[in-house]
Amino acid sequence: MFFVVKKGKYLYLKRSIKKIMKTANKIMGAIVLIIIAFLLFTTVSPVLILAEDTSEGTPGVDMAASFSPLMGFNWVYPGSTYSPGGQTLHNIHLDYPDDSYGAARDMVSYSYGYTPHLIVSVNEEAAEAIFGLGLVDNIRANDAYNGYGNSHAQGTMSRGDAVSTAMTSGTFNPLEIPLQLLMGNIKFFVV
Question: Model-level pTM?
Fold first, then answer.
C-alpha cells in the first residue's frame, strides 16, 4: 500500500512538473518573440530615449538619444533637434502639453529624417539608481555647454560626451531597471 501511494505521488509530481515546464517554455517562447519583434521594430524605427528632469515645475528634457540595432546609440539632444517653428526638445511639455511625446517624435523626424515610434522616458531618480549616485553631478562637472566644472573636470566636454563619461564611470546596476519601471521612473510611450 505504501509503495502504491508513493508511486501515485510521484506520478502526480511528474505530471505537475511537465505542466510547469510546458508553461515555462511558452513564456520563454513569447519572450523570445517579443525580443525579436522589438529588434525588427527598432531596425525600422529607432527608439527615442529621453532623460527628463522631473524636479523642474514642468519637466524638461535635458538629454536625448536614439537607439537601433543598425544605427547604434546616437545622441540627438542637445544638438540640432528642433521643430519647424524652432522649439527644442527641452520644452516639449511646456510647448506641447497635450502631445509632448508626439512633438518629440515630430522634432526628431524633422531634424534627422527618421521617425521613432517608441519613446522611453527616464527621470533623474532612475538614472542615478541605474548608473550610480552622483550621475547628474558628474555630467554637470564635465558639461562645457552649461559652464559647469570643478577641480577634477573643467567642463570641456559636449553634453553627449559628459553623459557617456558619467555613465561609464559609475556602477551600472541593471537590476534597478525593473524596479524603476514599477516605480514609474521609466516610462514607455508608443507614438
Answer: 0.70
Q: Kindly state whether residues 59 and 108 are assigned to the same domain.
A: yes
Query: In terms of residues, how long is the chain?
Result: 191
Per the structure, the count of domains in the chain is 2
pLDDT in tens, 129-150: 988 877 777 777 766 655 554 5
Inside any domain, residue 5: yes
The range of the structural domain enclosing residue 81 comes to 46-132+171-190
